[in-house]
Predict the 3D structure of the following.
Amino acid sequence: MRNIQVNKRGLQAAIYLFACIGLFLSCSRKTSLVFKDHTFKNVVIDEGRSPSAPCEPSIAINPSNPNQVSAASVLNNYYQSNDGGLSWTKERVTSPYGVYGDPVIRYDYSNNVFFAHLSNPKDRAYSSEEFLDRIVVQKKQFNGSWNDGSFPPCDRKKDHDKHWLAIDKNSGVMLMTWTQFDVYGSKSPDDQSNILFSKSMDKGITWSEAKVLNQSPGDCLDDDKTTEGAVPEVSAKGNYIVVWCRDSKIYFTKSTDQGESWSDEQVIAQQVEGWSMDIPGIDRSNGFPVIKVDKSTGKFNGRIYVSFADQRNGKDNTDIWLIYSDNEGETWSKPVMVNNDEGRAHQFFHAMDIDEKSGQLFVMFYDRRSKPGTNATDVFLAYSVNGGSDFENVMISEKSFTPEPTLFFGDYNDLSVVPGQVRPIWTHQNGNTLKVKTAIVSY
């Protein structure tokens, strides 16, 4: 009887062990999204030939009405769709302060769409001292007209460039960060670049006085040692957080008092070979960071994500990386590679957004894995359903293209996500023609 009892206990232990293993595997198993249509229909939003070809696109889905999608491209092109991105209308945006590229399109949660851009008040660009003297933000309702625009108080004798916007759902605050150059392009060691911050509490009518966020200034060469690529966000606890690049590093700072004061800059990642990278066929390419926060009710609520590109695996193997923090930026994870190719290929010009309901994370990027040894370029979408621990990758472009460095190709693409809908936007080159495209991605 004793032997029988021992065997029963052994059997019970074995059953318990296998149950625990099964539970572990079930919890740790990657889960793929179920896309409604795996063809990922591509839509041409605009096209044109040099020197005024559209590029450097930005896109935003109206969170209050996902059928309404807005987009923009250089220099002053604005597009909108009333059917989720299947068809588009186009207009040229004007302002007394000029409209000169670096478009950033964002919606708030009151059906307002904002268009942030560079200034050109005298309409003479580089031949005018007033060129780049401020960052302008224009506003309208979807079917309305653009206002003249507003801008943060700043030193207008200096040059202001490479801005980005973030709008918080809970407070309605709009944050903006950008780079201030003493003299853009100057080689003088006396001229500096710095990261500036401003906020609007009244839907872009007025802005706070610009504040410098960094302690270590950069040069003015618009290169690796320039402080650039600043992106703001609001954390799940309501703190303001900002990331940027300089000298082969990713920097982070935080404000716990609504932007009145800021923590000392913190290096949160190394960016091997710097943010200005050489990509064959592209006249210039950057690996600027993107920052997003999980504000869902899921298990990763509060997690701060930062993505960036670098060449730590070789100058012929640019990759996209993700780090995250679960304690408001005090400590950070080790980098996770977003692209899952096994060869040596370039992934670049990434953008990132998050499903605010589920917390699912999406990253888009150009990708050259499909035709090794060539510059043939596709567009991929990576997604993570487990808090950025790993990523699935899918190709969303219908046709490869081979860029030539003779055209200005822009500095970035963009991505917008609302629950169930993903709208990427990118530039596609065909000879001397540039096209701005999106893909219809639903899940």
Summary: The radius of gyration is 23 Å. The longest helix spans residues 2-28. Confidence is low (pLDDT under 50) at residues 1-9, 13-29.
